Amino acid sequence: MNRSYLKTLEISTGASMELKDISGLVNNCVEEAGIQNGIVLVYTPHTTAGITINENADPSVKSDMIKFFSEMVPDKSYFRHMEGNSSSHIMSSLISPSQSFILDNGRLILGTWQGIFFCEFDGPRSRKVYVKILSEDQ
User: Fold this and answer.
1) 90 alpha carbon, distance to own chain's centre
2) pLDDT of 88 above 90
């Protein structure tokens, strides 16, 4: 019998571009689910946001990434999207709306310095992140 778990996280961002470490929130979901082995999917249903994995020990990594994305995909006057946030949509596509993780013996398998980040590209806003855990426990 396979079990599953789904939780909706509410994420508030305070800047137009922000990388928010949500590792603790995802780990809380793992504990709450009580599932020991399986796959954890972290997904955001927004077209101007994403989920990524990166270093969470040095905060300058987040600021470097934001600076790089801003330079790589600047706002351009020739973008035709009427809301004026085409660069946010492009960044979201480059990052991806989801990441998957291995759950082993009740713990996410992450590298020593890795964290899970919600990437805001069109804030500040209130956003949703879904955490789905699929069990392979019998």
Assistant:
1) 16
2) no
